[in-house]
TrEMBL record, chain A:
Keywords: Centromere, Chromosome, Coiled coil, Nucleus
Coiled-coil segments on the chain, per record: 60-105
Signal peptide interval: none
InterPro entries on file: CENP-O (IPR018464)
Name of the gene this protein is made from: CENPO
Alphabetical list of PANTHER family matching this protein: CENTROMERE PROTEIN O (PTHR14582:SF1), INNER KINETOCHORE SUBUNIT MAL2 (PTHR14582)
Coiled coil in keyword set: yes
Source organism (scientific name): Crocodylus porosus (Saltwater crocodile)
Nucleus in keyword set: yes
Subcellular locations according to the entry: Chromosome, Centromere; Nucleus
Classification via Pfam families: CENP-O (PF09496)
Region entry Disordered, spans: 1-47
Similarity-based family: Belongs to the CENP-O/MCM21 family.
Protein name: Centromere protein O
Automatic annotation (TrEMBL), chain B:
Native source species: Crocodylus porosus (Saltwater crocodile)
GO cellular component terms given for this protein: chromosome, centromeric region; nucleus
Superkingdom to which the source organism belongs: Eukaryota
Gene: LOC109311427
PANTHER family per UniProt: CENTROMERE PROTEIN P (PTHR28577)
Protein name: Centromere protein P-like
Length: 328, 193
């Protein structure tokens, strides 16, 4: 515990180590948390001060403060180093995990599930990746069922069926029915539009043959969706042929509109009324064209409308207009 | 001294990142072709594996939920197969094209419907838009032999022409059920006579 007089003489040298005795220990009655400022405020008790001591003390204070600062800086650097190392380690761990998962996924895809597969990773990771693969597998299979027209999901009460609809290969809206399977079978909720005769179909089949109920309903829904698709498609892509009066109902089973057909240099206007008598079909059962000058053309059109989709019929008109030599 | 350690760590990080990139590319390539399984091999419940090493690995929180999700999907699938009678045995799907928000996949689907075998191939075009995903079936070809199915050959060729999977499955399913009933009836008479 040498007094730092020697230090005062070597004041030119920087002092890095905090080995200087804290000045408070030289003065036993000083406060327990001394700061350099604190020293300035409290004069030492009961000790005679030599005249040069205040200078030495202030110098020592400065050195102590500096040492303290440097110690803090070093602690900070050490901590930063530790944090950086921790970050790098964490990143490595994360990347290793990612790599191992990918390795497993790749190796699983390349070979079928084999009990003797080389254990590459830990059990839990392998189980997780395998599980994810199985989930993907089952989800894809369920998507295939959606494509077949009838799919569904088991519920607490029974089944929520999903009837998919399509026309011309295009998948359109899906309709849902939440059904209670236990007797008496009933429909809890559904998204079938009200103009579809759901009640009649249910009365006929629901209690006795759910499968038949669903296939009949599916036929109605698909036909409705098909008629609507044709009408919308016609309005969108053949608007040049259509006149102004377009009448239809929600079920799209009665359709009346004006159209005109151009042959050579003349245009012939028509007004047609289409009735789709069979609700489970998307072709009309009756087509009545308003009387026009060329009765043969009217007859030809009527049979066209009852035998092919609306937009395909208009396609033939378009082709006939473009190639006038081909018309009869 | 410390810079050495950093260098070592950073080298490892870089090599891991490169490895991950290679594996991800490989996985992407493998995704283009995959076969789906529907038999017991895959539908078996996930059995717990033996612990192989004592490496630390925190159990991810979603694992039990994923298991529950898988079990519910699997029961949905087996219900649908029993209910509709459609049992796909082999379904392979190959991505032919994937650009932006469009994807074209080639499906080969074969299996049994009420014990009658079917075999189809079709292409599915899926387009993503703001309203959702739209799907279109094109190039449907029905591969089964048609001598047994001459009764429904007209409907089958119409379904094939229109790319109408729904019509195919509805018609084929009805036909297959009818065949089953017919067999039962004949068997009954055979026994009686």
């Amino acid at each position: 515990r040498e007094p730092a007089q020697g230090g005062a003489e070597r004041s030119g040298e920087p002092c890095h180590q905090a080995v200087l005795t804290p000045l408070r220990e030289l003065h036993p009655h000083s406060p327990s948390h001394p700061t350099p400022q604190g020293w300035e405020e409290r004069p030492p008790n009961g000790l005679p001060l030599p005249s040069f001591l205040p200078g030495v003390l202030s110098h020592l204070e400065k050195l102590e403060a500096r040492a303290h600062e440097l110690a803090l800086k070093e602690e900070e650097t050490k901590q930063q180093r530790r944090q950086k190392v921790a970050r790098l380690r964490a990143r490595i761990k994360e990347l290793r995990q990612q790599r191992d998962e990918l390795k497993m996924k790749v190796s699983l895809r390349q070979m079928a599930v084999r009990a003797d597969a080389e254990p590459v990773q830990t059990a839990k990771m392998r189980e997780q990746v395998l599980l994810q693969w199985k989930v993907e597998n089952v989800e894809a299979m369920l998507h295939v069922f959606y494509l077949t027209g009838i799919s569904g999901k088991l519920t607490k009460h029974g089944v929520c069926f999903c009837l998919s609809t399509a026309y011309d290969g295009n998948y359109l809206d899906s309709y849902y029915l939440d059904i209670v399977i236990k007797q008496p079978v009933r429909i809890r909720r559904h998204s079938v539009p009200i103009f579809i005769p759901l009640k009649q179909i249910a009365e006929k089949y629901l209690q006795t043959d759910i499968r038949c109920f669903l296939t009949t309903l599916s036929a109605h829904l698909n036909a409705y969706v098909g008629r609507k698709y044709q009408a919308d498609y016609l309005q969108k892509h053949f608007s040049a042929f259509l006149g102004r009066h377009w009448q239809t109902n929600s079920l799209c089973n009665r359709l009346t509109f004006n159209y005109h057909v151009t042959t050579e240099s003349s245009t012939f206007p028509f007004r047609v009324k289409l009735v789709y008598g069979d609700l489970d079909r998307s072709l009309p059962t009756e087509a009545s064209d308003a009387p026009a000058s060329l009765l043969e053309k009217v007859a030809a059109h009527s049979s066209l409308f009852t035998h092919m989709a609306l937009h395909k019929a208009f396609d033939t008109f378009r082709k006939a207009a473009e190639n006038p030599d081909d018309t009869e | 001294m410390e810079s050495n350690i950093y260098q070592v760590y950073e080298d490892e990080i870089q090599s891991l990142e490169e490895e991950i990139e290679t594996l991800a590319r490989e996985y992407e390539n493998n995704q283009l072709e995959s076969t789906l399984y529907s038999d017991e091999k895959i539908l078996m419940p996930v059995k717990p594996f033996q612990r192989e090493s004592h490496e630390e690995y925190e159990e991810p929180e979603f694992l039990p939920d994923l298991k529950a999700w898988f079990n519910s999907l699997e029961s949905d699938l087996s219900f649908l197969m029993k209910f509709t009678g459609i049992c796909p045995e082999n379904c392979s799907r190959k991505t032919l094209e994937k650009t932006g928000n469009k994807a074209i996949q080639n499906y080969r689907l074969s299996g049994k419907c009420h014990s009658l075998p079917f075999d189809l191939e079709f292409q599915l075009l899926e387009t993503q838009s703001e309203e959702g995903t739209s799907a279109t079936v094109t190039d449907l070809s029905i591969i089964m032999e048609s001598d047994e199915y001459c009764d429904i050959s007209k409907i089958m060729s119409r379904a094939e022409e229109e790319g109408n999977l729904l019509l195919f499955f509805r018609a084929f399913s009805n036909f297959a059920q009818w065949c089953k009933h017919r067999k039962c009836t004949f068997l009954h008479f055979k026994v009686v006579c």
